Amino acid sequence: MSAEIGVFGGSGFYSFLDTVEELEVDTPYGTPSAPFVVGEVEGRRVAFCPRHGRRHELPPHAIPYRANVWAMRELGVRWIVGPNASGALRPDIALGEFVVCDQLVDLTRGRADTFYDGPETTHVSAADPYCPVLRRLIVETARELGIPVRDGGTVVTIQGPRFATRAESRWFASLGEVINMTAYPECHLARELELCYANVSTITDHDVGVEGQEPVSAETVVRVFDENNARLRELLFAAIPKIPRERPEHLCSTALRGARVTLP
User: Fold this and answer.
1) Which of 4, 43, 124, 139 has the fewest CB atoms within 10 Å, measured from its CB?
2) 207 given a catalytic annotation
3) pTM of the predicted model as reported, rounded to 2 decimal places
C-alpha cells in the first residue's frame, strides 16, 4: 500500500478520510503516533496520521516526530500538509483564520530533530523551512473558497505542554505572529528527507500576552478547532487534487545537495 500525499492531524483533527485502509508502519525510530490510514481524494492516494494519537494521548513533547515523518516517506509520500491548532500573537489575527506560515522560530528543548546523528555529518538548510510550491497552492485554494487566510507569517514553537506566561507571550509576539507546540521539528525532518511540507496554522485563541485576552484553556482550543474542522477539510479536499504529480526541482527536493560534510 502506498500514498503520494500525507496529512498530519493536530489538536481536534483526529480523522480525515472516510473510506480507508489501515496499516502499521515500522520505522528505525520506533512506533508512529497511530496506525496510518490510506485512502483517495479524487484519485490521489493520501496517508493520514493524527500526530497526538487517536485519543490525544501524546503531549507535544512526547510525539514521535521522527517515526511519523519517516513512516510517511516509507509509504511513498512526497508532499505533506501539517495543520496545527495555534494561538495568535497579534490582536488583528482573527479566531478561525488560517495562517500558511513561511518562517518559524524554534524554542523547544531536547526534541530529536534530525535523522543525521553521524558518522556522516549533514547540515540541511532551514533558511526557508516550508515548501513554496505547496504553500502557494494552499493559499490560492483557500482564497478561491473564501476561507480567511494569511500568506506567510512566523510560527513560534514552544516546548509545552504548559501554556506561556504573560511575560513570555509578550516576548513571543516580538518573534512571530502565531504560536503552537508542534510545528517543530516536523517540518525540518521532512526537509531532511527531501519531502515537501507546508504548515496550516488554524487560529484557535489569542495568546495570553495579547492585550485584553483571558488565559487560554485547552477546552477553548479544542472547541474552536472543532468549529473550524469543516473548513479545514474543505480546504484539504480542494487543494490535494491540485498538487503536482511530478515534483519540480527546488529547495525541498534537492535539500541534501551540498549538505554533507565530506573530507578528502
Assistant:
1) 43
2) yes
3) 0.93
